[in-house]
Amino acid sequence: MHLQIRQASKAYAGIPALIDAALDLHGGEALGLVGENGAGKSTLIKLLAGLEAPDSLEVRLNGARVTIPDSAAARRLGLRFIHQELAIVPALNVAENLFLNNPLPRIGGAFVNRAALYKLAREAMRRLGIDHIDLRQRASLLSPGDAMLVKIASAFIGADDQQQLIYIMDEPTAALNQAEAELLYAVIDRLRARGCALLVVTHRLHELFRIAQRVTVMRDGMVVNTHKITETSAGELIHEMTGSSAAHLPPAADKVKSEATDDRPLLRARYLQTDALSAASFHLRAGEIVGVAGLAGAGRSQLLQALMGIDKLRAGTIELDGEALRNPAPAVCWEQGIAYLPEERRSQGLLLGGRISHNMTLPHLGRFRRWLAMIDRRAEDRRSQQLSRSVQLRATGIQQRLRELSGGNQQKVMFARAVLAKPRLVLLDEPTRGVDVGAKRDIYRLIRELAAGGAGILLVSSELDELLALCGRILIMRNRRLVGEASTAELDERALLSLMFAGLPHLPTPSSKHQGRGAQSNKINSDARFLTA
Amino acid sequence: MSQRPHLSSFLRRYGTLIGFLAIVLFFWTQRPQTFMTLPNWVNITRQMSILGVVAFTMTIVMVTGDFDLSVGAMASLVGIVAGSAFQNGGGVGQAVALALLVGVAGGALNGLLVAGVGISAFVATLGTLTVFRGLALYTSSGASIYGRVIPAEFSSFGRGAIVIGELSIPNLTLLAALALALVFVILRFTIFGRRLYAIGGNREAARFGGIRIARLRMLSFVISGLGAAAAGLMLFSRLSTAHPTQGEGLMLQAIAAVFLGMTMNEEAQPNVLGSLVGVLILGVLANGLTQMQIDTYIQQILTGVIIILAVTLSSLSQQGLRAPEWLRRLLPERGEAA
Amino acid sequence: MRKLSLLLVLLLAIGGAAFAQDAPTIAVMTPFLAQPGTQLMVEGFEAAAADKGWQVNVIDTSEDIAALVSRMEDVALQGVDAIVINVDPTQIEPGLHAAADAGIPVFGLDSGAHPLLATNVTSNGYTMAAETATYVVDRLNGAGNVVMFIFEPYPPVQKRGAIAQAIFDNTPDISIMDAITPSFDNGPLEGARNAMEAVLLAHPEAGSISAVWAAWDDPALGALQAIEDAGRADEGIVVVGIDATDQARDAIARGSNFEATVAQDFGGMAARVADLVEAHLGGMMSAQVNHYVPARLVTQADLMG
Fold first, then answer.
1. How far is Cα B39 from Cα B56, in angstroms, rounded to an integer?
2. How far is CA A129 from CA A80, A84, A184, A508, B70, in A?
3. By the 8 A CB rule, do A234 and A32 touch?
4. Which of A285, A410, B162, C91 has its CB 3.0 to 4.6 Å from that of A260, i.e. a possible disulfide?
């Protein structure tokens, strides 16, 4: 099988997003596609999926010219897509969600054959090696990682094992933790072995070296280069993506690493309990960056939401600078100097239709008050401009609408919002997810500057290297509990991973070797001192 | 090439306004002696003043993504309340204060149900609509209140005008202008207004961003109740009659006007200047079509068709393409029509 | 948007097809065109106007009084030659003033009297109500329980109720069980039907309801449906209405419980108003506040003949 893509071009409102791109997909091969945000990867995929009308596009399947006017045509050609945005309907159950983009099995032409629906759904999930998700569970109850797995599984509905299809995946592992990602890698390997062709867009370079045979680099809407994976390196790819030799990770040995500037705890949380969190106790000093690690669904986001007063506190106390924070609610917490970057910046953080300045000042409007109720727009604009510069925002101006910005720049707006009022405590939930390499570097710098300025930072991340490089201590969460903490001085990625996994009932095979490490497990037990205190 | 996006965004924003001007031009040419005259426009503004007040305050509620279906029934109820006050020997001040209080209380009830209890605005205000209507019918025993019980200064206000030289501006028009200015300032320049738009833009993000959503939604319903009460008093004063169902036509028209106004905003957000144009479109259509002696039922059909067309065109140009092929052929290409 | 306006112009051009400008133009304005009686009057007026060579503009605002006032202001500005209204004039005073300011005479067509009206043509509501109420009294031999359907907000109908009530009150052995104002939400017919169903349920024993007196035909028809659906058509409940609509005539003709109605002479009223308008345009003002056009009782016997 051979899919040739030539002369793919598309401009939005006169601004080119994709310029004459060309790709080749072969059966039995996974092609990686990398590039910074805005490089044109998602646009290319939308053209192939028939979701956008191309300005020009030539596609040949096994030499024959084909057209893709709509998504049904793409499906007929054997193309299967896993798109970046979560397309999950919360009110439907898991199995029904699996069939959102697939023809439902029917009885008598009009009625859904539910038995067949569940059978096909089960097969698709098994193909992915997922057995921990209840097919009848409502999708609204899924963790983001599980929701992503469901979405991925939907691309495997009704695919019999002989069929050779073309799978196109846009950031499939963005919301997945390492173990879940391993499940996907195994599936990719199996599909490839069967003769399917795969195109995988990713920001995680290391995963390319695990799954891809060739890798194509895009920059500014154009294809820059294509390498055999064995003949390239992460450094070279980054160089081609950014046009510079920027290191995409902060130097691990950086000693600025969150040494507390003060011994008095800034934040002391005791026995925090919400509907989604059990008895979490920890403390945080000013100037300290503390990581929160755990598998998806371990309760990391819920810990931040408890601190922010988003989830109702059933029990426990929060002290900020020695003062109790009673009845926390987001409005109160912002006023108290707690800043928060939620995990889903599009649905939970940003007003996508709003202007940059309005997004930055949203929680701080009280600071721009004049004449009783009016907004001092001049002061607002001035402050927004200042912040745009300090977070190195790339935009046409502070009046630009958020939806026109790339993911990385959107996240910088969230950072600007967080730092506007010199926060005492900053809660960050996956601050670098779906963010390109250049923006990532800027975000790391911002986090460090915040800590250096005396703010305490609680950082939730699925990127272990990021946690290890930025944090002095890492809190470990499992099954909605805070089970302990570890100092990063003694940790590497594998050790951290094993801490996250320990005790998990269904441990996936790729990581099972960590389970046996007695020394690590002991460490967790010894660190679990808060729980009994 | 670089001009195209500007043109299409111009059309997107001003298409409805251009349509409005086209309608005006059309009536002008058809009825040259009567339509484009000062008395007629004064007439139109007076006729639309009551709907205007309802639509402007409704805009505030719709900015947060809610609806208030109870405004028409509230306007009727308020007329009956004020009329009953007159019947019981109350003065103008007392009657007006009582009526406005009823509006605030009704709005607070709506807000409590929607923002406090968490019932959808549609269901909650549909319920209060029926309650308000029932209260109006019960209080009045279904009969109109009119005649000598209504103080002359109250009924003369609705028919009165402020005369400046040649120009006489109806009191009701002035009230509507005042409401327009107030709502404009609230939505455009105050912290409250900005927060309302945040709630409408992304409710969860607004909450996570520290906005007290329940409180603000509640307040927006109170304003809408107050607006409905003011409109009810204006209607009572204009007609010198309080009938227990006389305001019911206001609700659908107000929502239609706000929708028409939303077509004039790039982000399809409710905005009060747009609502003003929406109100004027409805007013000019009714006035002009009557003058042209178009069958009144055809008038309704035309008005509905125009609302649907405006919203359809705007949403198509907003989504950009992906309309069915046959429809795309019918419509002007983006950016090329002008 | 260009195409939108083009379409609009096209539609309007069709709707507003050319008409004679020099012939007198009369606006007929009502919020009640959906009511059969109003329809008959408007049709009668249009016929009479056609004979006289007038241009008639019928405006209905679907029960919206405020809108009717606005439309009156519009036609006053437009400058029609006369306005004929079928609505309570006290509720549309600003419109009457607008017409008066423009020097346009306004005629009531079964609307009620008002100082700002040139004159009003109507049936004598008192005598109509007396006709059906005495019919009920006679049929019951002066004894029984009567359900009344009334409508207070509209004076011409209100006075019918008052007269019927006086006649029933004046008959010692007749008692009024209930005086119901039917809900207009789904039309008075449906409203009366629902109300009558409730009354029937409340009084299940045969003979407990002797008669239904309705101030106009729609509630009488609704009550009739309720009685028939409840299987109580054979109890001899006497149903009477007023106005003699086609539906009422059919019900009476087939020998149902609906026994009598009063035929207002809608055509006659419309013709009379047209004559008065013509006289007025010719300079003859009427000094009479109300012109009454006689009405007559309609029973099965009348319809057979």
1. 24
2. 19, 21, 8, 9, 54
3. no
4. A285
What pLDDT, in 10s, does the model give residues A133-169? 888 888 888 887 788 888 888 887 866 666 788 999 8
What is the pLDDT confidence band of residue A194, given thresholds at 50, 70 and 90?
Answer: confident
Q: Which residue of A has its CA nearest to B204?
A: A348
CB A53, CB A238: distance < 8 Å: no
- Exposure of A287 by Cβ count < 10 A (0-12 exposed, 13-18 middle, 19+ buried)? buried
Domain A250-337+423-533 has CATH 3.40.50.300: yes
Is the dihedral angle over the CA atoms A454, A458, A464, A468 positive or is it negative? positive
Q: Do A353 and B211 touch (CB under 8 A)?
A: no
Token pair 């992304």 is found at B202
- pLDDT surpassing 80 at residue C250: yes
d(CA A442, CA B43): 61
The beta-carbon neighbor of B194 closest among A348, A358, A401 is: A358
Identify the CATH number of the domain defined by range A2-242. 3.40.50.300
Identify which of A335, A352, A363 has the shortest CB distance to residue B209: A363
Show Cβ contacts of residue B307 under 8 Å, excluding neighbours closer than 6 positions: B256, B259, B260
Q: What are phi and psi of A217, to 5 degrees?
A: -105, 130
How far apart are the CA of B186 and the nearest CA of chain A, in angstroms?
Answer: 8
Tell me if there are at least 3 CB pairs under 8 Å linking chains B and A. Answer: yes
Give the burial class of C18: count Cβ atoms within 10 A of its Cβ; 0-12 exposed, 13-18 middle, 19 or more buried: exposed
ipTM: 0.85
Q: Is the pLDDT of residue B66 over 90?
A: yes
- Catalogue all structural domains in chain C, each as residue range(s) with its CATH number: 24-123+266-294 (3.40.50.2300), 125-263 (3.40.50.2300)
Q: Which residue has the tokens 């902060």?
A: A250
User: Is C251 exposed, middle or buried, given 0-12, 13-18 or 19+ CB atoms closer than 10 A?
Assistant: buried
* Cβ neighbours of A362 in B, within 8 Å: 198, 206, 209-211
pLDDT at A533 over 60: no
The answer, yes or no, to whether residue A25 has pLDDT greater than 50, is: yes
Domain segments of chain B as ranges: 3-319
> What architecture is the B3-319 domain classified under in CATH?
Orthogonal Bundle (1.10)
> B206 to chain A: which residues are within 8 Å by CB?
351, 362
Annotated domain spans of chain A = 2-242, 250-337+423-533, 351-420
Instruction: List chain C residues with CB under 8 Å of B317.
Output: none
Whether the CB of B88 is below 8 Å from some CB of chain C: the reply is: no
- Yes or no, beta carbons of B294 and C12 under 8 Å apart: yes
Taking the CA of residue C237 and the nearest CA in chain B, the distance in Å comes to: 28
What pLDDT digit, counting tens, does each position of A433-490 carry?
Answer: 877 777 888 889 999 999 998 899 999 998 778 898 899 999 999 878 898 888 888 7
> A330 and B210: CB-CB below 8 Å?
yes
